[in-house]
């Protein structure tokens, strides 16, 4: 038993010291780089010499990221709810990698609102979250798989661990559970091609990531559009 424990400690020590070498020419594509985790990761990888392609939802986000990064960092606008926008981003990545393939894909985008009791919601409320946080990420992953297979690269899906607890209705938890299942399946299938698939389950790094004002605004919006019958069944005290 002691020998096994010692072997595991040695293995973990060696594994955790491993670093990717020869970063020149290794392209990493990151979604959700306007702010927070995706933004910080893009800057961090850029400083270490990776060829970063950062997808931003807004032109302002792209400009601000470029202002504090090296000239090798490239940005592209991306709306994960729009298939044509995804196609343009994939074409841009293909052009930038210039036949080398894609070393890494980091999926980070989130759609979180609206959330609320399930029977306060309509199907479009689920679409507004799932189209970005689940279906959009799946679509762009599928379209980038040929580049990832060419470089024997890796997929890293950043999933907020809060979404794995189904404590509120809406598409948020559904999208997180869906990305877990998609990642686990993809990991098994891509092993044959030398492509690694990882999940990073993170928490809330900063308090401002949870904007209570936005959540409250959506709750009142949902409440105000309910039929009198549903509203009466809950009552003002519930709200």
What does this structure look like?
The protein contains eight helices and six strands. By secondary structure, the protein is α/β, with parallel strands linked by helices. It has one domain (25-207): 3-Layer(aba) Sandwich (Rossmann fold). The chain has a six-stranded parallel β-sheet with strand order 3-2-1-4-5-6, sandwiched between helices. The radius of gyration is 20 Å and the shape is globular. It starts with a helix and ends in a 5-residue tail after the last helix.
CATH topology: Rossmann fold
Average predicted local confidence, pLDDT: 90
- Reported CATH architecture: 3-Layer(aba) Sandwich
- Assign a percent range to the helix content: 40-55%
For the biggest β-sheet, the strand order reads 3-2-1-4-5-6
CATH class: Alpha Beta
How is this structure best summarized?
With 239 residues, this protein is α/β, with parallel strands linked by helices. Helices cover 51% and strands 13% of the residues.
Topology of helices and strands:
Elements (H helix, E strand, L loop, with lengths): L1 H16 L9 E4 L5 H12 L3 E6 L2 H9 L6 E4 L5 H15 L6 E4 L15 H29 L2 E7 L10 H20 L5 E7 L9 H14 L2 H7 L5
Parallel strand pairs: 1-2, 1-4, 2-3, 4-5, 5-6
Features:
6 strands, Rossmann fold, 51% helix, single chain, alpha/beta, NAD(P)-bd_dom_sf, oxidoreductase activity, six-stranded parallel sheet, 239 residues, SDR_fam
């Amino acid at each position: 038993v002691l020998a096994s424990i010692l072997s595991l400690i040695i293995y973990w020590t060696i594994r955790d010291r491993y670093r990717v070498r020869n970063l020149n020419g290794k392209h990493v594509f990151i979604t959700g780089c306007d702010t927070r985790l995706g933004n910080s990761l893009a800057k961090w990888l850029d400083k270490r010499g990776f060829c970063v392609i950062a997808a931003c939802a807004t032109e302002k986000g792209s400009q601000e990221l470029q202002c504090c990064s090296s000239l090798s960092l490239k940005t592209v606008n991306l709306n994960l709810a729009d298939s044509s926008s995804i196609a343009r981003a994939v074409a841009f990545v293909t052009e930038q990698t210039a036949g080398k393939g894609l070393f890494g894909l980091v999926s980070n985008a989130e759609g979180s609102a609206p959330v609320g009791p399930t029977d306060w919601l309509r199907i479009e409320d689920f679409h507004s979250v799932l189209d970005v946080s689940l279906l959009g990420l799946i679509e762009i992953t599928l379209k980038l798989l040929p580049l990832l297979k060419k470089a024997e690269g890796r997929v890293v899906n950043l999933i907020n661990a809060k979404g794995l607890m189904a404590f509120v209705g809406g598409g948020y938890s559904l999208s997180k559970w869906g990305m877990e299942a998609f990642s686990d399946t993809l990991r098994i299938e891509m092993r044959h091609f030398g492509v690694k698939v990882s999940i990073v389950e993170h928490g809330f790094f900063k308090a401002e990531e949870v904007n209570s004002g936005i959540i409250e605004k959506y709750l009142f919006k949902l409440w105000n559009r309910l039929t009198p019958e549903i509203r009466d069944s809950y009552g003002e005290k519930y709200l």
